[in-house]
Amino acid sequence: MLGILLAGEALGAEVLERVRAAGHPDVRYAHGFLFQVLVPGPRTVGDVAAALGISSQAVSKAVAELEALGYVERRPDRADARRRLLALTARGQDAVQAGRDARAALGEELAAAIGPERAAAAAAAIADGLEARGAMDAIRARRVRPAAGA
Question: How confident is the model at residue 80 (pLDDT cuts 50, 70, 90)?
């Protein structure tokens, strides 16, 4: 089982390197958690904090960094002028797409290396294991939370 965990870490690191090589050299692993929450659309700091299980202060700190890098912006909420919404910029959306492209390419490379049947069986087994742990709902709903210290 350790192999699955280490494979996940190694593949995640490879995806990150590909995203960086695709024009996003400042993206860090932890940024992906915030990106995933914003993919469906703009959200408040409080909504993002609740989704990630972290403090609003931690979200604000990450957003300040991502704003400076051009990945996230704060927008006024048209429904309530007192609130500000966080949204991915075009650069942020490009980073998300770079991640999707990297994962797709890596999946194709792995399937070519071990064969499509074995790759599909491995993916199904891992998905079944995640389902058994109750993690698939969070994955589908983009509610995967960062590990402590991520």
Answer: confident
